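Action item from last meeting closed. Structure (264 res):
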């Protein structure tokens, strides 16, 4: 009979999110650091007439599961933001902001890297000259006709044409369409959805570490905690997340989670 007690927990190898209604996988995270599972309860003390504590009743039991993903995860960010990752394709493109510094050619034109999109004729609305000392100089506005203080734009050919006396470099900002991009949006009125979790673990027998057991923590109802989401934007930064765990409210089963270890 397989009946282990003390085990070596090697690592949490994956955290999987599922839609509890359809059981469809909605997120999977595999670079898990510092995982932590906690439970808590509210205690109500019962005292006698002298104030001596007789017993304590505990209710409102909840839990939390937190971890740090070693890599920045777009799927994890989407779950924390209470949104879905938008994936572009040939039929539904995503607008991507572009900032470019371009050298003006001998023909007084600057050629963009991408085809700009936006209001027709004003896909690029302005251009700023960059001085030799790397400061901004004169600003030129787009115009349908050439002039001293404007530039003309051929969006299809990605070309800006400046007056003859404009030389050096210019800074431009515009938007382009991409069919190979993703986008995650944080809205102030979005709330993370309730998920179910499978937290996969690897255990070892302490008396024979060559014996490896598969483990899983099954959570029927978990919601990403949006109260203090912090995503490090440093190169060596980590991506932390925390779920609040609840029992299925309308179920007679008060199961918060299961810890399951299998011999095979």
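Sequence:
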């Amino acid at each position: 009979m397989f009946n282990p007690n003390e085990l070596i927990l090697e690592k949490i190898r994956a955290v999987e999110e599922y839609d509890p209604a359809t059981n469809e996988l909605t997120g999977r995270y595999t670079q898990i650091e510092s995982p932590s599972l906690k439970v808590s309860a509210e205690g109500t003390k019962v005292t006698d007439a002298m104030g001596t504590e007789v017993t304590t009743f505990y209710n409102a039991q909840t839990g939390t599961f937190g971890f740090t993903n070693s890599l920045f995860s777009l799927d994890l960010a989407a779950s924390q933001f209470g949104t879905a990752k938008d994936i572009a394709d040939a039929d539904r493109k995503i607008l991507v902001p572009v900032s470019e510094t371009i050298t003006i050619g001998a023909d007084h034109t600057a050629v963009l890297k991408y085809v700009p999109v936006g209001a027709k004729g004003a896909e690029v609305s302005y251009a700023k000259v960059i001085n030799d000392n790397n400061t901004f100089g004169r600003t030129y506005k787009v115009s349908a006709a050439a002039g001293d203080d404007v530039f003309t734009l051929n969006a299809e050919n990605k070309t800006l044409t400046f007056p003859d006396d404009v030389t050096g470099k210019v800074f431009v900002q515009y938007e382009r369409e991409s069919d190979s991009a993703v986008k995650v949006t944080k809205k102030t009125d979005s709330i993370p959805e309730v998920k179910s979790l499978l937290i996969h673990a690897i255990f070892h027998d302490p008396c024979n570490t060559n014996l490896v057991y598969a483990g899983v923590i099954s959570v029927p109802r978990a919601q990403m905690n949006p109260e203090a989401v912090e995503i490090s934007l440093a190169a060596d930064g980590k991506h932390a997340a925390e779920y609040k765990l609840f029992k299925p409210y309308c179920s007679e089963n008060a199961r918060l989670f299961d810890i399951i270890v299998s011999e095979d």
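Note appended to the action item: The longest helix spans residues 74-81.
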